[in-house]
Amino acid sequence: MDQFEVGWRDAEGEHRRPLADVLSVEFEAGLPVRGFPSYRGQRNFPGLYWSATTGGHVGFESWLERDHAMLLDFTPEVTGLLSQPLWLFWKDERGKRISHAPDYFARFEDGRGLVVDCRPLDRIDSRSAAKFAATRTACEVAGWGYRVVGEVDAVRMVNVRWLAGYRHPRHGADEGLAARLLALFSAPSPLVPQAALLGDPITVLPAVFHLLWLGRLAADLSRPLSDATLVSPAATR
Questions:
Q1: Cα separation of 107 and 99, whole Å?
Q2: What per-residue confidence (pLDDT) applies to 45?
Q3: Which residues contact 167 (CB under 8 A, 6 or more apart)?
Q4: Tell me: the pLDDT tens digits for 200-220?
């Protein structure tokens, strides 16, 4: 553990400590350790994603990073999320100083931390692979999970992006309508015909999509969402 140091930012400023001293730090509540450059002719696509989990913006530097921020936001067990959450410092076998800022830090409701790096798997060169391996070692020592994630299944991602359009609380139903929808879909039922039993689908469907986003209802997202998609209680997902 002594081989790694961690740098992070919060409202009080910048900090740098040995890994052993930061295990209780709430990185998800801090500030990004670096910015996201934007310039004319840029080949990647930086931007901000509004997270329903945090109620604020999460930065990304590519569509791939945006997709994985969205997937973390879509995970009901995730309670905190920050992009570029920390610097990890160490020395390689030749004594050269190395640093790496992972893409995301997520906190789960049971207290677990998860560090995520996003990179198309066919674009991981030897330099990146070495950094990812060292980051994995640091995370294992700290008790955090670690993932290197690549492209997401295209159909699943299209479905999640659609549901993300209904992630904001303004699409949520009042508890009365939500209870009726949960009862209506107490057994697997086709999306639009069943929703229509409660009224005009144009009015009812946003509430259904919001419940799907929250994980209170479930559907098979490995197939394109359609009028006939079976929606069921989340417990049967």
A1: 23
A2: 85
A3: 52, 73, 74, 210, 213
A4: 999 999 999 999 999 999 999
Q: Are residues 22 and 36 in the same domain?
A: yes
On whether both 91 and 195 belong to a single domain, the answer is: no
Give strand ranges (E) for 71-130.
78-83, 87-91, 97-100, 104-108, 113-118
Torsion of CA 172, 154, 75, 177, to 10 degrees: 20
Contact (Cβ atoms closer than 8 angstroms) between residue 7 and residue 87:
yes
Query: Cβ-count burial of 59 within 10 angstroms (0-12 exposed, 13-18 middle, 19+ buried)?
Result: buried
The verdict on 96 and 185 lying in the same domain is no
Name residue, tokens 């986003």. Answer: 213
- Regarding pTM above 0.90, the answer is yes
Range of the domain at 99: 5-149
Task: Give yes or no: residues 63 and 167 share one domain.
Answer: no
Same domain, 200 and 139: no
Tally: H helices and E strands in the chain: 6, 13
